[in-house]
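Request: Show me your protein:
***
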Amino acid sequence: HDIARLIEEAEFLVFDLSEERPNVYYELGYAHGVGNEALDVLLVAAYGTKLHYDVAGLRVHMYQSLEQLRTILKKSLPVMIERTRTR
């Protein structure tokens, strides 16, 4: 229940789809179901991750190293913060 509440209250969400963890896919589906817009959700995954068919059409930022992941986050998070706070 705590995770569901946090998803509902979050300004934006980041999901790492690496390692095909079912709970992450469930939480992503829940986030979309409760009305989080696509621009408020950042999807990342390590290169080589097999994306499930239900997210294969979504924009997923792929990374090969922690440094690449940091770069993705540094570019994406300020934009997401700005967008959610100017609504």
